[in-house]
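Duplicate of #3305? Posting structure anyway:
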């Protein structure tokens, strides 16, 4: 091997030399083990989802050794006395066996459930971080699409896993799934019979969900996560604006040993949190619900949080339907089910998938971006994101409208009516409030650049007024603020003869021009001439004059 590794740290050079002598991988290892990763707390959010997925794979493998995906009815003869002799499916009986008779089974089952919730929550928060910082822009659009697919598949994975215990609570969710499937025009009946193997509940749905849950969906998730990681590795990680950072470099720590050590510790920390919650916080006590029968439903039943927004949409939707052919069942479209099932998910997922391309169409920004935006510096994007969160949050909250009504002693009807109003009003309010907050924060940044930061030194002016002396901000703070870039805007001004630019003509062109003018441009410039007046010059020159007999220190 050449002396290429002579200047590389021994921790890297040793393993590299060992492998190079055997497979000739010195250049590959040197290049990748020294890859730089930026250091910012928000970049760890995606790792929570990754480590939760690993925990899911490990605990799920353990559970498959004892779980029986069968709907054949048997009389329970296990350790849980209150259910002895009760007829139930083998799936439910094996879930009880895991909980009470398998050593460590209840701990692993609860770890699996908590990790599933953390997996979806981690993905959601990670996607919000990517969205609000603009990290989906060129060249990362493909990775963003993969992320949207991952979130969609994670919801499907959660739905199939939630139904496997075949208890009364999961059965209620399965009944809603059947109602949504059968309401679909033309294909609903065929899809339902295919899924359940005949008339609901059939005898095949648990076995089919089991195959989807442990084979098909995890396989696709694993492939997409691998592709997501490879693309991130090849395209390099985004970084927050700061001193010495630009679109051509990455400032941070090397993958080996610094990042690997932190990642390993973070995985163990995530595992400890999941194990701690599984130990001290009970989740899904299936023995309290009993076996599922289509004729029963438990009071106050709620789905896992990631399905709460679909539950809320079903609850607040008016009982609308369309009869195409009089009263014929074949021509009935139950909008009260179709709209909640398809529209909220369609708005959120389609909006996420298309947003990078819509933004580029509006702004004309085809540049590569490796520096992340601060959310305040793109107020319209941040406001759109908060509107989506408000839309999701109202639906999620109204998924528990019965519990809210009972706890606060409010009419259930009025709770539902309030939800129907809030679903339109809350996103609009969130947009307006967020936009004003972003502008306010930009003005705060402008004040820091123009006037400096508070020094804690109070000075008394000759005419008796007390002021606080401001000082120049630290280099790293100033660089972080000055990393702001104006949002690009299309050239919309007509030429001297009054003809609009190409692409800005016609109804679509005029709409695009108006959207670009609103969305893009600099809202609050950092340097606008403020801060050079006599009073503020006095404040700046007063730094270091604490020995003045009229100066005080806080």
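Output from current build:
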């Amino acid at each position: 091997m050449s002396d290429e590794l002579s200047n590389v740290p021994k921790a890297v050079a040793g393993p590299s030399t060992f492998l190079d002598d055997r497979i000739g991988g010195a250049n590959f290892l040197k290049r990748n083990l020294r890859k730089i990763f930026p250091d910012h707390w928000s970049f760890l959010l995606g790792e929570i989802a990754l480590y939760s997925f690993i925990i899911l794979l490990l605990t799920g493998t353990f559970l498959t050794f004892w779980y029986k995906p069968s709907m054949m009815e048997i009389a329970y003869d296990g350790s849980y006395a209150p259910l002895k002799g009760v007829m139930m499916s083998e799936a439910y009986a094996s879930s009880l066996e895991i909980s009470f008779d398998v050593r460590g089974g209840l701990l692993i089952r609860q770890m699996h459930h908590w990790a599933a919730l953390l997996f979806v929550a981690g993905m959601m928060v990670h996607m919000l971080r990517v969205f609000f910082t603009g990290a989906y822009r060129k060249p990362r659009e493909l990775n963003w699409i993969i992320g949207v697919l991952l979130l969609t598949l994670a919801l499907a994975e959660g739905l199939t896993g939630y139904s496997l215990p075949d208890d009364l609570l999961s059965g209620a969710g399965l009944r809603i799934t059947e109602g949504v499937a059968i309401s679909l025009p033309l294909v609903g009946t065929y899809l339902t019979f295919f899924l359940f193997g005949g008339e609901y509940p059939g005898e095949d749905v648990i076995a089919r969900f089991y195959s989807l849950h442990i084979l098909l969906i995890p396989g696709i998730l694993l492939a997409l996560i691998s592709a997501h990681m490879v693309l991130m590795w090849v395209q390099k990680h985004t970084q927050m604006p700061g001193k010495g950072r630009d679109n051509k470099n990455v400032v941070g720590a090397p993958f080996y040993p610094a990042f690997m050590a932190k990642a390993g510790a973070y995985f163990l920390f995530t595992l400890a949190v999941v194990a701690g919650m599984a130990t001290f916080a009970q989740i899904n006590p299936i023995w309290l619900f009993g076996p599922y029968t289509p004729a029963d439903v438990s009071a106050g039943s709620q789905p896992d949080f990631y399905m709460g927004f679909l539950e809320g949409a079903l609850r607040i939707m008016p009982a609308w339907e369309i009869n195409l052919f009089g009263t014929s069942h074949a021509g009935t479209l139950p909008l009260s089910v179709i709209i909640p099932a398809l529209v909220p998910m369609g708005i959120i997922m389609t909006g996420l998938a298309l947003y990078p391309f819509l933004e580029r169409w509006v702004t004309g920004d085809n540049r590569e971006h490796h520096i992340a935006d601060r959310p305040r510096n793109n107020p319209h994007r941040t406001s759109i994101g908060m509107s989506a969160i408000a839309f999701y949050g109202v639906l999620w909250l109204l998924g528990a409208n019965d519990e809210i009504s009972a706890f606060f002693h409010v009419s259930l009807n009025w709770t539902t009516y309030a939800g129907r109003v809030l679903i339109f009003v809350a996103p609009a309010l969130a947009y307006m409030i967020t936009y004003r907050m972003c502008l306010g924060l930009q003005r705060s940044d402008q004040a820091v650049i123009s006037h400096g930061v508070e020094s804690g030194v109070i000075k008394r002016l000759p005419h008796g007024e007390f002021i606080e002396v401001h000082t120049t901000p630290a280099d790293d703070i100033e660089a972080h603020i000055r990393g702001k870039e104006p949002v690009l805007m299309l050239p919309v001004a007509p030429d001297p003869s009054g003809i609009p630019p190409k692409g800005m003509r016609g109804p679509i062109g005029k709409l695009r021009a108006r959207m670009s003018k609103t969305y893009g441009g600099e809202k609050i410039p950092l340097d606008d001439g403020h801060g050079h007046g006599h009073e503020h010059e006095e404040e700046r020159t007063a730094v270091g004059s604490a020995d003045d007999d009229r100066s005080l220190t806080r």
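Confirmed duplicate; merging threads. Residues 1-5, 528-554 have pLDDT under 50 and may be disordered. Strands lie at 36-38, 73-75, 87-89, 252-254, 322-323, 332-333, 453-460, 466-471, 552-553.
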